[in-house]
Design brief:
The chain is of the alpha+beta class. It has two domains: 74 residues, no CATH class; 60 residues, no CATH class. Helix content is 26%, strand content 11%. The chain has a four-stranded antiparallel beta sheet, with helices on one face. It starts with 5 loop residues before the first strand and ends in a 50-residue tail after the last helix.
Length: 171
């Protein structure tokens, strides 16, 4: 990354009045400074700086904000303006094809994480990829689920899939 400074608001409910994030050319890292609404402090309550720990991607800062504020993951990426404006979903077959392609790329932690996330979307994982909370293998997340930002959840478990059935596009 690099090349120019970036500063933008963090429009996260409860933190949106003063909070900012951006790219700091000096440290070569993204950063975030968050103040709770109503704070009169000059110093942010949460200060994520690349001087102490590098944040090479906006998603790194988003995950740290989620951990520090306990806010909903989707709410944070939307508050930072990095959520895709028109997301598309892969079919179950496309997801499984991509998972198979990843297996051939090696065994790095990054590749294992991608594979696990894809397997989770198909009901094939025992824990969620983000929060690592327990997840029954016979349940799966769907894009139709909606949660208020205060819930702290992006997905929740659904009713069990009938035994012997595969997930398809109608699920």
């Amino acid at each position: 990354m690099g090349g120019y400074q970036l500063h933008d608001a963090v429009d996260l409910p409860g933190w949106e009045h003063q909070s900012i994030w951006g790219w700091d050319e000096g440290t070569g890292s993204f950063y975030a400074q968050l103040w709770r609404n109503g704070s009169t402090s000059d110093a942010p309550e949460i200060w994520l700086t690349g001087a102490l720990k590098p944040y090479p991607w906006p998603g790194c800062i988003a995950l740290e904000i989620v951990e520090h504020t306990q806010a909903d993951t989707l709410a944070v990426v939307q508050a930072m303006g990095i959520a895709h404006p028109d997301p598309t979903l892969r079919t179950a077959d496309e997801v499984m094809q991509r998972a198979e392609e990843l297996r051939k790329l090696g065994d790095s932690g990054y590749i294992r994480g991608q594979h696990h996330a894809l397997a989770w979307t198909q009901g094939l994982a025992e824990f969620t990829p983000g929060t690592r909370t327990e997840w029954r293998r016979d349940r799966w997340p769907t894009p139709e689920l909606r949660f208020p930002p205060s819930s702290g959840q992006v997905f929740k478990q659904l009713s069990p899939r009938p035994s012997g059935t595969a997930r398809n596009e109608q699920d």
